[in-house]
Amino acid sequence: MTAPVDVLAAADPVAAVLAAHAAGGPIALRTSGTTSQPRAVVRSTASWWTSFPAVSELTALGTGARLWLPGPLQASMNLFAAVHARWAGALLVDGPDAATHAVLTPAALSAALDDGVPLAGRQLVVAGDRLGRVLADRAIAAGARVGHYYGAAELSFLAWGTAEDDLRAFPGVELSVRDGVVWARSPYLSAGYAPGQDGPFRTAPDGWATVGDRGTLTEDGVLLVAGRGADAVTTAGATVLVAEVEQALRRAGGGDVVVVGVPHPRLGQLVAAVGTDAAALAAARAGVADLTAAQRPRRWFHLPRWPLTAAGKVDRRAVADLAADGRLERLAAGVT
Question: In principle, which of 166, 185, 260, 284 could form an S-S bond with 253, CB 3.0–4.6 Å?
């Protein structure tokens, strides 16, 4: 097998992907996980090219379109968008003023709205993390058209919608939830990790694959993603899955919430909820009836803006450190 090209190490990653495609060789893409160590995902360029027509149709991106990518090309979602734009005959522009399209993380979208960045008339693709309905509606109220997709570096596209609450299978993708875990079968899957590396990507003999994200699939085909089941807080001997708590709090409060564990001398850790919208946090705190006693946050923190990784995603490790170090505004008293 031809050795994969580390396209992100190239001076021009877009050109490196195009050259690999012309040569028929695989590429390696380093992941940008917010809580885990980066690893290199190996895939054929055909696994990207095959999805280009569907993305063009969903976003109306074609010849003459002008795409703004505020995030770095080292993030695979941005590199994919840049390569797709080249394939479609679109141009990359340096800012939103001249743009017809933009690709943003939810955190970057929130910051753009807070800063008054002109988004009216633009087609936004928001990915890299879950897009809550409240934030999506803010962008729509600002005059933007919003598309949101769920996927993973190992799986590529899995589902598309306007926010996390209306995601349906991306064209060409079959979805299944087995024992609470999201599985997919599609022509867009990667080949796995670089030699000597390991990660959550698993495949079954029938062609289905997963990275371990948990979720549910409704009878009418809407995929509700809870998150990676491995992230947990251990409090008083109970293991609390972060994804399940965050999902319940988002339903109750309508805003984005990050759940972390903060050290406690007697209980080991306390479940803590952190958000940038104080009103949404208060609503979430008042609506935690669906959670067990162990799952209910005992600390509630507010911060003005999310700390971000280099890829523009919420830096969960930094959030946990801020909470543990007492550097966040505490909204309510809890267990001591």
Answer: 284
